[in-house]
């Protein structure tokens, strides 16, 4: 059951991952068979709209989903299957191998604990033998790394602005020197300018620390700017994957095309007084349309689309798309 | 021609703890012409939402004047109700803007009932829903807000607002809570309403791309004040105010610009900096460009007014871009 | 023409309301615990209303029970035996249910009405007036219930009306605070702003948006207050502050206790009122929970 040998062994390899939430009227399939690879030091963007399963996928990688959720497939972190790990090993892997910056995490700092103490706690939990002085030095180093003066360590979270809190959370995620950072909508609640600051910070960290980053967001234009590769999800599956520039500028899947068009290029007359979107809404995972789940909203739907459950197929060098109209190049 | 809406020196403040006042809107002059789409752009905390709420009469200005069709806006009585028929609002969060206990029918009929609009209520509701793209309207009558999608909810809010026949629609971040693929349809609906009914729209947003998508003119707001205003093409094509330029440079969609990332965050509106309110974060000031131009003193001490900017038809509130050297 | 339109609008509104009620009942029937609670309450109601048919009121008086054996177990004096004076326990239980339920419901009505009026006005009007109301509420809240009730009952004299009054005016502050908090959050909702932007008056906002959204809370609070009021009545009666001329479940417990029913193991004397109180209190709670789940559309959404 070994994957084909690759030039650089992937740090993260997801194979046929399916996640079904327990629901009162039967299971809710949130992720329906996703495979992806992330090499050490690489950035992969995962784009999609609400309910497409992107956050579920991010959570499944570190087994952070609610009890009773059925997860099948494999999540190989450095060749070791996360889904098969014992609880002790899993705890060790979270944070030291891979850590996550969560959506809406601005409220996930403990309001009555100094930020320095919260970072200390994370370090001591995973490296209990580290001396007091070494831990303190590490906290200072981490804060400086994310652009916060080390003397702010004695501040409480409410003393920090939204952007600074997000930086603290990134420092917290990096506390145990992970090699993989999963960032789930890390900038969504932030202002444009602060968003730009945090994105620049992430890019710098990725380069300096050789981090692999899985960047999950609904904002395709941001991904195109910060990631080398992009995967676009719709209805629990990846519908297009490839180098970010190509996916954003010349999408192969009609859904990606529509999504890219929803982020107008300022100055481009094609978008002037011409907002573009899709009819209808993203599908409810409980009631997925037959065949290609995108067909009811697809501007290019073919007669066979309601019947063909189309899978990813090659669409040029390093690219793949799940659409019957894609001709393998 | 009389502008549809005219604001002169409008100020709105909120008392905060410690006896200070947050000056959310701090002297705004603005006009909206009939049938135009004006985008009010800024970051959170710049006062754009407060300004929008002041225009529709949900907040009261502490100073300055709001004129609608040349008349000062009434504060009470029948005249106020008549004004409310003419100015309606669309909210950022359509789920919160609809009472969870009211059906879609009731939500749309509410404005008609309050305004005692003549005509068959059921027909008017059906008309409003189908004009907002919810067809067939009868299918939505008995549904509750949680039974429809986010995009449909926003259509219901728009239908309710348009049902009373306004000539100005104030839309506060109308699509920011919606999925990206759904936004375009809502914006298209709004542009269609402008074409068909001649309504003016003041759209409040943080998204410059949205302004490029729909607006005729753009006003950029920073710390309670409009710092630059002009047609969309002028302003987004060649921004004059350093704040606008920075804002535009960090938008991924702007394409190819060297990102000019300002340090820090927007200051607290209880402590508006002296002189030009932008000078502590201004790249021109920090780089010494302002000193070279010999205006450093004025940046620190003199509040710049909106004035024609050098090399462009738009107005900008910046000493460095002011066309003529104003007397100190 | 306008008249015709208005009638048609009213007709539509009424049809919608009827449908809503029918729909709510359909939903309620699906809640098993709610139905169990309702069945118990209906039974208790029937017993209380049908008391004259179930037992002769004359049996409550000791003078009429002179010929009966005292401490007779149910097997000797069906259906529930007799007490130390030879009175029928069944008759006391049946007639006592009337007083217990009456006091519980009436005191709750007083508490809920005061609490809702104070809470809604303090929340909606706000400002200095609201602050003043809340200071008054807190004043009532910090007075310990039992001493106040004992003093009031002693001063006013032991009668049902006074017991109702005492329980009613000591149970409202919690409701008032809860309702005020809810009104304060409702007032900030966007749909209230939307309605205001349509030109809605305060009366409209109150009738259309505030009250309908506090009602589930009021209802839930009612179902919590009734059992507390019933228990309060029991407490006061047990302490000898009840109406001495009328049997209630609390008074039965008091008399059973003082007559030594427990040492005599005369279970038929203290068990019926004890179980009666427990079942009615439980039933109100079950009904309240079921109603709350139905009347709040957001809860309904989560369930489906």
Written description of the protein model:
The complex is a heterotrimer of chains A (329), B (328) and C (304). Chain A has helices at residues 54-61, 87-96, 115-126, 132-145, 162-173, 192-209, 220-226, 244-249, 254-261; strands at residues 12-21, 28-38, 43-47, 70-77, 80-81, 98-101, 180-184, 212-217, 229-234, 237-243, 313-314, 320-321. The two termini of chain A are 29 Å apart. In chain A, helix 3 packs across helix 4 (132-145). By secondary structure, chain A is α/β, with parallel strands linked by helices. In chain A, the strands form two sheets. An eight-stranded mixed β-sheet of chain A has the order 6-7-8-3-9-10-12-11, with helices on both faces. Chain A has a four-stranded antiparallel β-sheet with strand order 2-1-4-5, with helices on one face. In chain A, 29% of the residues lie in helices and 21% in strands. The mean pLDDT of chain B is 91. Chain B has two domains: 5-219, P-loop containing nucleotide triphosphate hydrolases (Rossmann fold, 3-Layer(aba) Sandwich); 259-327, no CATH class. Chain B has helices at residues 48-55, 77-86, 94-97, 104-114, 121-131, 138-141, 150-163, 180-197, 208-214, 232-237, 242-249, 283-286, 289-292, 296-301, and strands spanning 5-15, 21-32, 37-41, 63-68, 71-72, 87-90, 168-172, 200-205, 217-222, 225-231, 307-308, 315-316. Helices cover 35% and strands 21% of the residues of chain B. With 328 residues, chain B is of the alpha/beta class. With 304 residues, chain C is mainly α. Chain C has one domain: MetI-like fold (Orthogonal Bundle). Chain C is built from twelve helices and no strands. Chain C has helices at residues 2-29, 32-49, 51-54, 89-125, 127-142, 145-156, 160-187, 190-197, 202-238, 249-258, 267-295, 297-303. In chain C, helix 4 packs antiparallel against helix 5 (127-142), helix 4 packs parallel to helix 7 and helix 4 crosses helix 10. Chain C starts with a helix and ends with a helix. The relative contact order of chain C is 0.13. Chains A and B meet through helix 6, helix 7 and helix 9 of A and helix 7, helix 8, helix 9, helix 10 and helix 11 of B.
């Amino acid at each position: 059951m070994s994957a084909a040998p690759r030039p650089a062994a992937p740090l993260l390899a997801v194979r046929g991952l399916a996640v079904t939430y327990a629901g009162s009227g039967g299971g809710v399939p949130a992720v329906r068979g996703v495979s992806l690879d992330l090499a050490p030091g690489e950035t992969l963007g995962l784009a999609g709209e609400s309910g497409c399963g992107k956050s579920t996928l991010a959570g499944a990688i570190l087994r952070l989903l609610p009890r009773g959720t059925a997860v099948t497939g494999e999540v190989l972190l450095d060749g070791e299957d996360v889904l098969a790990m014992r609880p002790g090993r899993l705890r060790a892997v979270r944070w030291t191998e891979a850590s996550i910056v969560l959506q809406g995490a601005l409220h996930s700092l403990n309001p009555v604990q100094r930020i320095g103490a919260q970072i200390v706690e994370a370090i001591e939990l995973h490296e209990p033998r580290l001396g007091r002085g070494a831990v303190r030095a590490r906290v200072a180093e981490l804060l400086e790394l994310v652009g916060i003066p080390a003397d702010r360590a004695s501040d409480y979270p409410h003393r920090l602005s939204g952007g600074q809190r997000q930086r603290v959370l990134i420092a917290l995620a990096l506390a145990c020197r992970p090699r993989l950072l999963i960032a789930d909508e890390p900038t969504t609640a932030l202002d444009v300018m602060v968003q730009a600051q945090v994105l620049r910070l992430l890019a710098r960290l990725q380069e300096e620390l050789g981090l692999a980053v899985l960047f999950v967001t609904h904002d395709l234009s941001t991904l195109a700017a910060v990631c080398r590769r992009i995967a676009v999800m719709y209805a629990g599956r990846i519908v297009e994957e490839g180098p970010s520039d190509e996916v954003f500028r010349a999408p192969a899947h009609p859904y990606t095309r529509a999504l890219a068009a929803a982020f107008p290029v300022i100055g481009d007359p094609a978008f002037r007084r011409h907002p573009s979107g899709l009819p209808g809404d993203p599908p409810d995972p409980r009631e997925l349309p037959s065949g290609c789940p995108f067909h009811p909203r697809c501007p290019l739907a073919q007669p066979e689309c309601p019947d063909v459950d189309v899978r990813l197929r090659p669409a040029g060098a390093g690219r793949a798309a799940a659409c019957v109209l894609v001709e393998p190049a | 021609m009389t502008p549809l809406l005219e604001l002169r020196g409008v100020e709105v403040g909120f008392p905060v703890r410690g006896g200070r006042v947050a000056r959310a809107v701090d002297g705004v002059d603005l006009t909206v012409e009939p049938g135009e789409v004006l985008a009010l752009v800024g970051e959170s905390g710049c006062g754009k939402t407060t300004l929008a709420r002041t225009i529709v009469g949900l907040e009261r200005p502490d100073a300055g004047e709001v004129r609608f069709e040349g008349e000062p806006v009434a504060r009470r009585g029948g005249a106020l109700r008549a004004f409310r028929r003419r100015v309606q609002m669309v909210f950022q969060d359509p789920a919160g803007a609809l009472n969870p206990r009211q059906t879609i029918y009731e939500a749309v009929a509410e404005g008609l009932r309050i305004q005692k609009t003549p005509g068959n209520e059921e027909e008017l509701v059906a008309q409003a829903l189908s004009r907002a793209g919810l067809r067939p309207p009868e299918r939505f009558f008995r549904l509750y807000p949680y039974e429809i999608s986010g995009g449909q909810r926003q259509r219901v809010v728009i239908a309710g607002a348009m049902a009373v026949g306004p000539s100005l629609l104030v839309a506060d971040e109308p699509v920011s809570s919606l999925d990206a693929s759904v936004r375009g349809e809502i914006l298209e609906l709004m542009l269609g309403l402008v074409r068909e009914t001649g309504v003016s729209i003041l759209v409040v947003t943080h998204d410059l791309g949205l302004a490029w998508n729909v607006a005729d003119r753009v006003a950029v707001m920073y710390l309670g004040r409009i710092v630059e205003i002009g047609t969309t093409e002028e302003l987004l094509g060649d921004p004059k105010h350093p704040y606008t330029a920075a804002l535009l440079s960090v938008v991924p969609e702007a394409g190819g610009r060297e990102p000019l990332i300002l340090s820090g965050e927007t200051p607290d509106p209880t402590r508006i900096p002296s002189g030009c309110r932008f000078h502590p974060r201004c790249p021109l000031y920090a780089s010494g460009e302002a000193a070279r131009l010999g205006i450093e003193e004025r940046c620190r001490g003199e509040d710049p007014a909106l004035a024609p900017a050098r090399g462009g038809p738009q107005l900008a509130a910046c000493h460095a871009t002011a066309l003529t050297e104003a007397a100190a | 023409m306008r008249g015709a339109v208005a009638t048609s609008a009213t007709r539509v509104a009424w049809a919608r309301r009827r449908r809503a009620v029918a729909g709510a009942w359909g939903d309620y029937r699906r809640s098993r615990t709610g139905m169990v609670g309702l069945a118990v309450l209906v039974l208790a109601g029937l017993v209380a209303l049908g008391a004259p048919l179930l037992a002769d009121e004359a049996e409550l008086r000791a003078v009429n029970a002179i010929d009966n054996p005292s401490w007779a177990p149910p097997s000797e004096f069906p259906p529930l035996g007799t007490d130390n004076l030879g009175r029928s326990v069944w008759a006391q239980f049946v007639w006592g249910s009337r007083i217990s339920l009456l006091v519980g419901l009436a005191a709750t009505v007083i508490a809920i009405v005061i609490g809702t009026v104070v809470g809604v006005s303090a929340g909606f009007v706000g400002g200095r007036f609201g602050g003043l109301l809340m200071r008054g509420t807190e004043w009532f809240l910090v007075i310990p219930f039992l001493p106040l009730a004992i003093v009031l009952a002693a001063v006013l004299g032991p009668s049902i009306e006074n017991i109702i009054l005492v329980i009613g005016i000591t149970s409202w502050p919690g409701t008032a605070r809860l309702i005020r908090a809810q009104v304060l959050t409702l007032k900030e909702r966007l749909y209230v702003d939307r309605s205001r932007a349509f030109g809605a008056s305060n009366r409209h906002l109150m009738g259309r948006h505030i009250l309908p959204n506090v009602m589930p809370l009021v209802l839930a609070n009612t179902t919590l207050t009734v059992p507390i009021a019933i228990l309060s009545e029991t407490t006061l009666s047990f302490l000898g502050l009840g109406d001495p001329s009328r049997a209630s479940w609390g008074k039965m417990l008091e008399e059973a206790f003082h007559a030594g029913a427990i040492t005599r193991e005369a279970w038929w004397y203290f068990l019926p009122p004890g179980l009666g109180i427990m079942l009615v209190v439980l039933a109100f709670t079950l009904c309240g929970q079921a109603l709350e789940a139905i009347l709040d559309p957001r809860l309904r959404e989560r369930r489906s």
